[in-house]
Amino acid sequence: MIKAIIFDFDGVIVESVDIKTKAFARLFEHEGGVVVEKVVDYHLKNGGVSRFDKFRYFYKEILRRPLSDERFEELCLRFSELVMEEVVKAPYVKGSKEILDNYSRICQCFVATGTPQEEIDEIIIQRGMVSYFKGVFGAPKKKSVIVREILDAHCLKPDEVIFVGDAMSDYQAASENSIRFIARIHDNESIFRGIECIKIMDLTDLGRIINNDADTRQTAGHFSTSSVK
Prior knowledge:
By secondary structure, the protein is of the alpha/beta class. Helix content is 45%, strand content 15%.
């Protein structure tokens, strides 16, 4: 029996992935097109990784120059300014609001996101979503740690929990904690190519999947079910 659902936020509950992609591109546009292309490519391939870690990677591996504390804080502040209002206004992923309306009343729902804690707290408040969740957790905590703490704090067994995500960090957090994983597919299909898990285009079928134990059986943390279109 499923007692808890852990959701990533961007790209799973709300359609906000493109908002953050554009923000990263804008922050580095003065570095030229080649740098912007590399920044965007890394961001898209590492969805769910916090912006803190991404900024450090960009400077170390792409720009190959030191990132001062002052510049780091400036990037974080500017990024938040660029995305906050847009994420608050972003539409729900199809089916996600209905899932939250229905399942937040019968099981425990959580958010595990790479968005900074203070920012995701404010987004949840401004979107009027507080009542849906037993807990909302963001960066700098890693998602694998967040999942483990949710299991421990709420006395949940791995087979009682599902993680719905759209990034490799989501899959890894679920796998490391031996919980079931469902991938929401948008423009990220290449990330999950070769990974055996349920893949859904939106959340309209999630309720049926949760309720169908045959579809949600797993071995060692991996679903053996094919894509749901």
